[in-house]
Amino acid sequence: MNSKKNSKILGITLLIFIISACQYSSKKKINQDDIRDMLILNSAYSGRTVIQDSLLLTELNGNKTSIENLIKKGPTLFLRLTENNCNTCYEQEILRLEKLSELVGINKIALLVSFSKQKYVEIFARNYNIKFPIYNVKLSSFYYNKIEELNQPYLFVLDKSNVCENIFIPNSKYGSISQSFYDKIKRRLE
């Protein structure tokens, strides 16, 4: 009787193990597909998005400037987001940008946001303790950029060519991929 009971327990344990292994394998496949899709999406926009020289930006203090004035100093890494993006989509990126800014300097990194009111930008900067430059731009200024249709934060490097390069759409599930992106960009900004 005991051997029958032990066989049943062993059988159930084996069945649970097989089901768990199948679920893990399935989950791993989904993650690989997610990563593949993310890489394809990122490469689809790099080198194809152009920012106009005359794009008017509002600094945190309310002063106006053009994007041309920012990129005269060399390549700049921008995090682009809007007030419609989810917090978890950009919070980790802001922390990573803070660390990067300590290595390459705060003037080589900027946030390019679209908030309906300037006071929201000020509150955002204060809440996240942002030390690098933050600029507000009208959302309508970016309607021509296909990447905006994704309604997700993204990063890009802009230099005098006005072509968005190294476009990267971060995914909070894959922090190691984001870190690899920042390591690569650090070398470009130094």
Q: Would you give an account of this structure?
A:
This protein has 190 residues and is of the alpha+beta class. The chain is built from 5 helices and 8 strands; from the N terminus they run αβββαβαβαβββα. Strands 1-8-7-4-5-6-2-3 form an 8-stranded mixed β-sheet. Helix 3 (87-104) packs parallel to helix 5 (175-189). The chain is globular and about 40 Å long. InterPro entries: Thioredoxin-like_sf. This is Alkyl hydroperoxide reductase subunit C/ Thiol specific antioxidant domain-containing protein.
What's the arrangement of secondary structure elements?
Layout: H1 2-45, E1 49-50, E2 56-59, E3 64-66, H2 67-71, E4 76-82, H3 87-104, E5 109-114, H4 118-127, E6 134-136, E7 154-158, E8 163-168, H5 175-189
Q: In one word, what is the shape?
A: globular
**Percentage of β-strand residues:** 15-25%
Alpha-carbon Rg, integer: 22 Å
Tell me the helix content.
40-55%
For the sheet with most strands, the description reads:
8 strands, mixed
Q: What is CATH's topology name? A: Glutaredoxin
Structural class estimated from helices and strands: alpha+beta
Q: Total number of helical segments? A: 5
What's the CATH first level?
Alpha Beta
Low-confidence stretches: 23-30
Estimate the mean pLDDT confidence. 78
Q: How are helices and strands ordered from N to C?
A: HEEEHEHEHEEEH
Named at the architecture level, the CATH assignment is: 3-Layer(aba) Sandwich
Question: Total strand count, please?
Answer: 8
Total of domains: 1
Strand order of the largest sheet: 1-8-7-4-5-6-2-3
